[in-house]
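Please review this one.

:::
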Amino acid sequence: MLVIGRKPGEYVVIGENIKVKVVKSNDGDLRLAIDAPKDIKIVRGEIYEQEHLQEAK
């Protein structure tokens, strides 16, 4: 796992076509803006874990 620090407005690029940008909300929380092709499935971590727990049963 790569751990990298990014400030609001900065981003990382994964492969040739996925861009993950750090944005700051009005509350001061950090959010991620993900720009990826429509055929790439993106899910939140808690949903991913729920799906995989159900598969293990």
Summary: The chain has a mean pLDDT of 91.
